[in-house]
Design goal:
alpha+beta, 12 helices, DUF7089
């Protein structure tokens, strides 16, 4: 299931700087969440496993089943929204998992995704949005006028945007030391700009669901792309500083405005 992955020299340098103990494995099958048996197999390649767990009071009653499982004491590796590369600190040492879906991804962009995982590990941000929102997640659930799946998507996006406010400061430093990775970061951002600028119109016309728009806008934050309203309010020092409380207030104001 897991094969050690060889890293390019630039990515190796990023790992050495931000997450020197991290192990990287290619997975032989795609997943959103690893089946329990495969997750337990990680015990063969790491020193120890320590499942994350969170109080049930942090979850609304209608939380998706996978979120309930993640918050429990079960070893849950990977969650919807993780993308092509997932990382976890539920192992010692931490691991980065590369899914087969990366096949066909341009090599430089794949290097950026791997480097991003190491930067996030080095920032010591929570592994999942429930560790970011904590007991404020039910407040977000009440603020977001969507079904449980839509609320999950918005929460994951808001967390991703908050992480991006910190990680992009690191990415911007690559222009001097790691120009290839810096180019990949900027190129990925450039591909998002047109889609992001048109989000308000797409949502207003019913062409894009609000949760999808939030996901795209928040993904753009790490690329330092100018965001349209109402998402521009997330690209702020105030969000970086106040985190979940700010996110909940943003959701309250945004959905109140959408209801008018």
């Amino acid at each position: 299931m897991f094969e050690p992955r060889e890293l390019s020299s630039p990515v190796e340098r990023i790992r050495d700087e931000h997450a020197p103990e991290a192990l990287v494995f290619d997975c032989d099958r795609d997943f959103e969440t690893l089946p329990p048996a495969q997750a337990e197999e990680l015990g063969l390649v790491v020193d120890s496993l320590e499942p994350a767990s969170y109080p049930s009071s942090w979850l609304p009653e209608d939380a998706p089943t996978l979120l309930d499982r993640y918050a429990s004491s079960d070893l849950t590796i990977g969650m919807p929204g993780d993308g092509s590369i997932a990382w976890t600190r539920q192992t010692d040492p931490p691991i980065v998992l590369v899914k087969p879906r990366v096949e066909g991804t341009p090599e430089l962009f794949l290097d950026f995704l791997l480097a991003e995982a190491f930067v996030e590990l080095g920032l010591e941000v929570p592994e999942h949005f429930i560790g970011f929102f904590e007991d404020a997640y039910p407040d977000l659930d009440r603020a977001v006028a969507l079904d449980p799946g839509g609320t999950y998507q918005v929460a994951a996006a808001l967390y991703d945007g908050w992480v991006g406010l910190g990680s992009r400061e690191v990415f911007a430093e690559w222009h001097g030391d790691e120009p290839e990775l810096a180019d990949a970061w900027q190129d990925a951002g450039g591909r998002l700009e047109g889609r992001v600028s048109g989000l308000p119109r797409a949502v207003a016309r019913g062409e894009t669901e609000f949760a999808d728009a939030t996901e795209l806008a928040c993904a753009a934050i790490k690329h330092a792309i100018e965001l349209p309203a109402p998402f521009a309010a997330l690209d702020t020092d105030a969000y970086h500083e106040h985190g979940p409380d700010y996110a909940v207030r943003w959701a309250e104001k945004t959905f109140e405005s959408l209801a008018e």
